[in-house]
Amino acid sequence: MHRDVKSLLFIFFLFILLYTPLYPHSRPLIFILLNMYCVLDYYPVHPRLETYVHHAVTQVLSLEFLYPFRHGAWTKIYLETEWSTIFLSLRGLGVRNQWNDLAFFLTFSYFRMYRLSLLVGEMCLSDNIPPYIMACTSILYALNVYWYGKILAVLCGKKKKNVSIVPVTSIKPFCTGYNFLFDNRSSRLEFSCRC
After folding, report:
1. Residues 54-98: pLDDT tens digits?
2. Diameter of the chain by CA atoms?
3. Which helix H or strand E contains 169, and what residues bound it?
4. Are 7 and 85 in contact (CB under 8 A)?
5. Which of 12, 26, 89, 158 supports an S-S bond with 7, CB 3.0-4.6 Å?
């Protein structure tokens, strides 16, 4: 089975267990599913150290699904970071368009950068966090910062990427850092950084 199909199936079942009335009673099933996925994904086509570290940290944090500590709501934040994986997996399956890329960027920015940074900040202010939870969360956040840097490098054109050039009509930028462009003929949205 293709790796990205496995990812999408995993996320589908994970979100059923997370966003239905089954939660929090589904926590042991989430633990089993999460660990099965991590073990199966330890042997990717192109293994990278950050993949192994990410899965090892995820497996340690998954222990909270068996033995929930005082801040059980935090475990939901960890799982919600997988929203961006949906769009990354779709890209791996050949869905390569600007809408999918934009959805990936926005979900990665919100769940993995913004929400996880709030969690790390909250943990730093708390004095009753188990040390392994703090260490694993910090490692997880550092990995996401590293990946976010790679994503921004692609957006800013610092890293070569296969891009088809099409004539576009400018739309007023949504923010000061990015240009959003729309091609009326092909209905393609493109965005780039003005760094």
Report:
1. 888 988 888 877 765 555 677 788 889 999 999 999 998 999 899
2. 57
3. strand 169-170
4. yes
5. 89
**Quick one: angle between helices 83-92 and 3-18, nearest 10?**
160
pLDDT bin (cut points 50, 70, 90) of residue 100 is very high
Q: Which residues contact 50 (CB under 8 A, 6 or more apart)?
A: 143, 146, 147
| CA gap 16, 154 in Å, rounded | 33
Quick one: tokens of 6? 């496995």
Q: Which two tokens stand for residue 143?
A: 């990995």
Q: How far apart are CA 43 and CA 52, in angstroms?
A: 9
Residue 172 corresponds to which tokens in the numbers above?
């007023």
Residues 94 and 2: their CA atoms lie apart, in Å, by 12
- H-type helices in 81-181, by residue range? 83-92, 98-107, 116-125, 131-155
Contact 170, 179 (CB under 8 A): yes
For residue range 143-188, list pLDDT tens digits in order.
Answer: 999 999 999 998 887 765 444 433 334 433 333 444 445 444 544 5
Q: What's the CA gap between 126 and 124, in Å, rounded?
A: 6
Annotated domain spans of the chain: 3-160, 164-195
